[in-house]
């Protein structure tokens, strides 16, 4: 589709401008005085750049009108000013380490979440602890406890 779009929008202008550009270059070539020839070539290049800008603007406007899908991966980029939609607060009632030394967090509603990255976490002193689970980038989940000043990647296991 993009190749067809390029051919339909750009190529007619390119060929029409190519003939004019070629005529300008032939005229510039015939000039004997170096400064005048250089000025002529600079003018030809300036004309070429303005034509390219107008062609690019036309194709960008057409793409804006036809594109209904957001750019790839845009839904994973967090906006700075907007609050995260998928953020839930729970009470953690139990935390322990499994055989692989990863933390298992049990929440008040029966959900269990397992630590999914190698990161040192101190054990909570008192239960229940308020935790916030938010959706991160690329479908990952982050757990932030009120006694921690950092978050840890987790996955739900039950």
Question: What would the keywords be for this entry?
Answer:
2 domains; 158 residues; alpha+beta; rod-shaped; 6 strands; six-stranded antiparallel beta barrel
Task: Give your account of this protein's structure.
With 158 residues, the protein is α+β, with helices and mostly antiparallel strands. The chain has two domains: 2-66; 87-156. It is built from three helices and six strands, in the order αααββββββ. A six-stranded antiparallel β-barrel has the order 1-2-3-6-5-4. A hairpin with a 5-residue loop joins strand 5 (141-145) and strand 6 (151-156). It is rod-shaped, with a radius of gyration of 31 Å. Residues 5-11 have low confidence and may be disordered.
Give the SSE layout.
Layout: H1 2-9, H2 11-29, H3 34-66, E1 87-97, E2 103-107, E3 112-115, E4 129-135, E5 141-145, E6 151-156
Antiparallel strand pairs: 1-2, 1-4, 2-3, 3-6, 4-5, 5-6
Question: Biggest sheet, strands in spatial order?
Answer: 1-2-3-6-5-4
Task: List low-pLDDT spans.
Answer: 5-11
Largest sheet: 6 strands, antiparallel, barrel
Distance between the termini: 45 Å
Q: How many domains make up the 3D coordinates?
A: 2
């Amino acid at each position: 589709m993009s190749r067809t779009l390029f051919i339909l929008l750009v190529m007619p202008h390119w060929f029409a401008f190519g003939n004019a550009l070629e005529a300008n270059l032939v005229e510039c070539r015939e000039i004997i005085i170096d400064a005048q020839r250089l000025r002529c070539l600079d003018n030809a290049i300036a004309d070429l750049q303005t034509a390219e800008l107008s062609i690019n603007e036309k194709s960008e406007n057409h793409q804006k009108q036809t594109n209904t899908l957001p750019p790839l991966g845009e839904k994973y980029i967090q906006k700075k000013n907007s609050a995260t939609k998928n953020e839930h607060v729970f009470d953690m009632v139990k935390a322990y380490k499994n055989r692989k030394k990863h933390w298992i967090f049990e929440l008040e509603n029966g959900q269990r979440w397992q630590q999914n990255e190698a990161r040192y976490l101190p054990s909570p002193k008192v239960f229940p602890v308020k935790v916030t689970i938010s959706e991160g980038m690329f479908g990952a989940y982050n757990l932030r406890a009120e006694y921690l000043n950092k978050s840890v990647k987790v996955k739900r296991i039950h």
